[in-house]
Specification:
By secondary structure, this protein is an alpha+beta fold. Helices cover 32% and strands 25% of the residues. The chain folds into 2 domains: 17-92 and 244-310, Phosphorylase Kinase, domain 1 (2-Layer Sandwich), CATH 3.30.200; 94-211 and 225-242, D-amino Acid Aminotransferase, Chain A, domain 1, CATH 3.30.470.20. A hairpin with a 3-residue loop joins strand 1 and strand 2. It is globular.
Length: 311
C-alpha cells in the first residue's frame, strides 16, 4: 500500500516532458502542466530519505485555497485541482526571479542585518532593529532562480540592468507582490497569524503575467502566532513560528545541517509520524478547516486517473 508517495513514473498521452523537483513531479504538455505534490520532504537543500504521509496533500490544498482566495487580486495559472495531490494549470514561461517580500526582520534578512549590512537587495534598512521586529513597510528582496545550487539575492537595479526582466514587466511583478502580501497578511490575521515573509513566482502565458507555483504554504512562507508577539519582542524571546522549522531543528539536534561529511539521521517510524501530524496541524491552523484524510491505499492509481480524466 502506497500511503505516502515518494515519486511517480507516469506516461500520459501527448506528454511532452517531465521534470522532477525537490518535492514535486511535473508532467509537461503542449499548453499545460500537471503538477503532482509528492510526500518528499527537503531541508538544507537535501531531499530526506523518507516521505511524509499527507504532506503533499497538505501543501497542495493550502496553495489551492490561497490561489483561489487571491484570484481576484492577481490572475494565476490554476485550471483545476482534480486530486488532493494534483494541480493542473497553464504552462507559463517563468520569470527567472523569485519575488521575496518581507514584513519583518527574520531569517535570512536578520542574518544579513546581524552581519552589519544595512542594504538588502538594494533596499535600505534602518539601524536599531532586533530580530523579528516589524519593518517600517514591507520590502521586496528578489532572488535569482538558480538552475543549480542556491538562489542568490539580487537588486531591482541589477535585474533591470541585466535584462532579466523588462522594466514594464518588473513594475507589474512588484505591484502584484505587494497586493498578494497585503491580502495574505489579511487572511493570516483572520486566523490569528502574522505573515512574516513569503515568496511569489510569476510567469507569462502569451502576453499575460500570471502567478504560478504555490503560495502562502508553510514551505514557502514564514508565519508567527499573533498572540504573544508583542510580549515576546519586548522580552527578547523567540517567536512562536508556524513553518517547517521544526524539521530543521530535528535534523540539527541530530547533527545534520546539509554540510559535507554529515549523514542524514535515521528517520524512524515515530519521527515520520510526528512530522506528518505537524503538517496536519499546520493545515488546520493556516486554513481554519479540518483536514479530511483521503483514502491513500491506492494513491498512485488515484493520482494517475485524476490526471488522465483531465487530459
Amino acid at each position: 500500500m502506497d500511503t505516502a508517495i515518494k515519486e511517480t513514473h507516469f506516461n500520459f498521452p501527448n506528454q511532452k516532458g517531465f521534470y522532477k523537483g525537490k518535492v514535486r513531479d511535473v508532467y509537461i504538455f503542449e499548453d499545460k502542466l500537471a503538477v503532482v505534490a509528492t510526500d518528499r520532504i527537503s531541508a538544507f537543500d537535501v531531499v530526506l530519505p523518507q516521505p511524509i504521509p499527507f504532506k503533499g496533500q497538505v501543501l497542495n490544498l493550502i496553495a489551492a485555497k490561497f490561489l483561489q482566495e487571491t484570484a481576484d487580486v492577481v490572475p494565476n495559472w490554476v485550471e483545476s485541482i482534480p486530486d488532493p495531490n494534483v494541480t493542473i494549470g497553464k504552462k507559463c514561461d517563468p520569470f527567472k526571479v523569485e519575488m521575496v517580500i518581507r514584513g519583518y526582520l527574520a531569517g535570512h534578512a536578520f542574518r544579513e542585518y546581524q552581519a552589519g549590512k544595512r542594504f538588502l537587495c538594494g533596499v535600505p534598512l534602518p539601524d536599531g532593529l532586533k530580530e523579528n521586529d516589524r519593518l517600517p513597510a514591507p520590502i521586496i528582496t528578489p532572488t535569482t532562480k538558480a538552475d543549480e545550487g542556491h538562489d542568490e539575492d539580487i537588486s531591482r537595479e541589477d535585474i533591470l540592468e541585466k535584462g532579466i526582466v523588462s522594466e514594464n514587466d518588473y513594475l507589474i511583478l512588484e505591484k502584484y507582490t505587494q497586493a498578494l502580501f497585503k491580502k495574505g497578511t489579511q487572511l493570516a490575521a483572520e486566523k490569528g497569524l502574522i505573515l512574516v515573509d513569503t515568496k511569489y513566482e510569476f510567469g507569462k502565458y502569451g502576453d499575460q503575467i500570471l502567478l504560478i507555483d504555490e503560495i502562502h504554504t508553510p514551505d514557502s512562507s514564514r508565519y508567527f502566532y499573533a498572540e504573544g508577539y508583542e510580549d515576546k519582542q519586548a522580552a527578547g524571546l523567540p517567536q512562536k513560528q508556524l513553518s517547517k522549522e521544526f524539521v530543521r531543528q530535528w535534523l540539527i539536534s541530530n547533527g545534520f545541517q546539509g554540510k559535507e561529511g554529515q549523514s542524514i539521521p535515521e528517520m524512524h517510524a515515530q519521527i515520520v509520524e510526528e512530522i506528518s501530524e505537524r503538517y496536519l496541524e499546520l493545515y488546520e491552523k493556516i486554513t481554519g478547516e479540518s483536514f479530511k484524510k483521503p483514502d491513500n491505499s491506492q494513491m498512485t492509481a488515484r493520482i494517475e486517473k485524476a490526471i488522465l480524466d483531465k487530459l
